[in-house]
């Protein structure tokens, strides 16, 4: 039997936030404001640059807290963290903007982005085009689409209609993000989600090693799915990369792109820890 998990709780909260956002004005107005901004930074280009040099491409995360670990960092200064990441070779940033579960905010994204020249992923639970326009307006250069957030855990994985509906909804977010010049990171946890992710156009496929029911992270998740990612897509291993051995294991299997949060957030200087882990 499939049980509800933390993601379903977060999704329910997001639906309330989206309703409040919609009450403030129309999508057309938000979109026009977003279109008037200077173009986003090149998120995919920044990853490719590192890979072309034979270096790991690290998406360095800024998150104060998480549902699995509670508060990760008491002294939390997003601008200082962003500078440190930039000085120690990060390719891109990932900034949590969810307040309730991760202690994040749009302000943190703005502060981090203004303090460096790295492209920034808005790390949040995107379900609606309003959030995509809002992401650009806060400065995001990339958005996240979590495939599991579009699948009903109480409908069997084999329900064809539900899968088609999920793809339609995800494509709406992807096409608005692309129209606004942003990249899209599509995140999966298993093979069924990967099949849906490959229905989208984005080359960025994140494999999240965290089990959303138990919070356990297993790097095997990445290793099991890696062979099923076509060569025109870019695999990113996400969550649970904590030690140089973890990095070596992934690199040994040809993984070049990493999204890392906790290991950096717990360190006195997050950028120094990035250099130690990936040095
Ligand atoms: O981090 C959590 O506890 C969490 C719980 C439920 C949904 C998502 C969650 N994390 C989001 C992430 O994907 C991670 O912040 C990211 O991959 C970095 O992971 P880590 O290096 O393990 O902090």
TrEMBL record:
* Any one GO MF annotation of this record: indole-3-glycerol-phosphate synthase activity
**What gene makes this protein?**
trpC
Q: Its catalytic activity?
A: 1-(2-carboxyphenylamino)-1-deoxy-D-ribulose 5-phosphate + H(+) = (1S,2R)-1-C-(indol-3-yl)glycerol 3-phosphate + CO2 + H2O
> Which E.C. number(s) belong to this protein?
4.1.1.48
Keyword Lyase listed? The answer is yes
Q: Give residue ranges for domain Indole-3-glycerol phosphate synthase.
A: 7-276
**PANTHER family per record:** INDOLE-3-GLYCEROL-PHOSPHATE SYNTHASE (PTHR22854:SF2), TRYPTOPHAN BIOSYNTHESIS PROTEIN (PTHR22854)
Its pathway, per UniProt, is: Amino-acid biosynthesis; L-tryptophan biosynthesis; L-tryptophan from chorismate: step 4/5
Q: What is this protein called?
A: Indole-3-glycerol phosphate synthase
Q: Which UniProt keywords apply?
A: Amino-acid biosynthesis, Aromatic amino acid biosynthesis, Decarboxylase, Lyase, Tryptophan biosynthesis
InterPro entries, alphabetized: Aldolase_TIM (IPR013785), Indole-3-glycerol_P_synth (IPR045186), Indole-3-glycerol_P_synth_dom (IPR013798), Indole-3-GlycerolPSynthase_CS (IPR001468), RibuloseP-bd_barrel (IPR011060)
Please give the biological process terms from Gene Ontology that the record holds.
L-tryptophan biosynthetic process
Q: Which organism is it from?
A: Nitrosospira multiformis (strain ATCC 25196 / NCIMB 11849 / C 71)
Q: Which family does it belong to?
A: Belongs to the TrpC family.
């Amino acid at each position: 039997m499939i049980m509800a998990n933390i993601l379903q709780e977060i999704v329910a909260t997001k639906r309330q936030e989206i309703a409040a956002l919609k009450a403030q004005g129309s999508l057309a107005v938000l979109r026009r404001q977003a279109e008037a901004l200077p173009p986003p930074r090149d998120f995919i280009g920044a990853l490719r640059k590192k890979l072309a040099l034979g270096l790991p491409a690290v998406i360095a995360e800024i998150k104060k807290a998480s549902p699995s670990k509670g508060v990760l960092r008491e002294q939390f200064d997003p601008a200082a963290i962003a500078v440190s990441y930039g000085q120690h070779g990060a390719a891109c940033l990932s900034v949590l903007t969810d307040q309730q579960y991760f202690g994040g905010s749009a302000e943190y994204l703005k502060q981090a982005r203004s303090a460096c020249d790295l492209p920034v992923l808005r790390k949040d639970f995107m379900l609606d085009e309003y959030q995509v326009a809002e992401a650009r307006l806060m400065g995001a250069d990339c958005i996240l689409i979590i495939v599991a957030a579009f699948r009903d855990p109480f409908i069997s994985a084999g329900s064809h209609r539900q899968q088609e509906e999920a793809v339609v909804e995800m494509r709406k977010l992807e096409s608005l993000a692309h129209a606004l010049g942003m990249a899209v990171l599509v995140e999966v946890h298993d093979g069924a989600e990967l099949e849906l992710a490959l229905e989208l156009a984005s080359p960025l496929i994140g494999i999240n090693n965290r089990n959303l029911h138990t919070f356990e992270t297993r790097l095997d998740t990445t290793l099991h799915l890696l062979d099923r990612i076509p060569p025109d897509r870019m695999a990113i291993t996400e969550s649970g990369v904590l030690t140089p051995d973890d990095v070596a294991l992934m690199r040994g299997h040809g993984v070049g792109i990493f999204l890392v949060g906790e290991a950096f957030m717990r360190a006195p200087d997050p950028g120094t820890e990035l250099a130690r882990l990936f040095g």
